[in-house]
């Protein structure tokens, strides 16, 4: 049973890898043929300058790609840790280590 599972797993992995390699090979051949033709009547250097201008404009505005870490407060045992909004449960705080938020009582136990 275990060897059959390994064979199935290996065959699935190989088929996914093969399909990814086929897509990569076809994309490479398309890129080579497209690079010879100018895009929108612009040369590569003009496109590079335009891209650099857009990137410089983003840095001046101060756009940040980094995700800010959200800090969730900690709950003690017996405190309310969640609220129910219809079928959804919204977290109010994170229970201490060794406890979990009970989804029926909505308290840390």
Automatic annotation (TrEMBL):
GO terms for cellular component: extracellular space. SUPFAM superfamilies: Satiety factor CART (cocaine and amphetamine regulated transcript). It is found in: Secreted. GO terms for biological process: adult feeding behavior; cellular response to starvation; G protein-coupled receptor signaling pathway; negative regulation of appetite; positive regulation of MAPK cascade. It comes from the Eukaryota. GO terms for molecular function: neuropeptide hormone activity. The keyword Secreted applies. Keywords: Disulfide bond, Secreted, Signal. CDD domains: CART_CTD-like (cd22741). Residues 1-23 form the signal peptide. Pfam families: CART (PF06373). Belongs to the CART family. This is Cocaine- and amphetamine-regulated transcript 4.
């Amino acid at each position: 049973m275990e060897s059959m599972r390994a064979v199935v797993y290996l065959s699935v992995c190989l088929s996914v890898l093969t399909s990814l390699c086929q897509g990569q090979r076809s994309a490479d051949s398309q890129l080579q043929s497209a690079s010879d033709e100018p895009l929108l009547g612009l040369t590569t250097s003009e496109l590079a300058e335009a891209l650099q201008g857009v990137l410089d404009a983003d840095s001046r505005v101060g756009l940040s790609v980094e995700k800010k870490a959200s800090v969730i407060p900690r709950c003690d045992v017996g405190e309310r840790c969640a609220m129910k909004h219809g079928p959804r449960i919204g977290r109010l705080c994170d229970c201490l280590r060794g406890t979990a938020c009970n989804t029926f009582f909505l308290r840390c136990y």
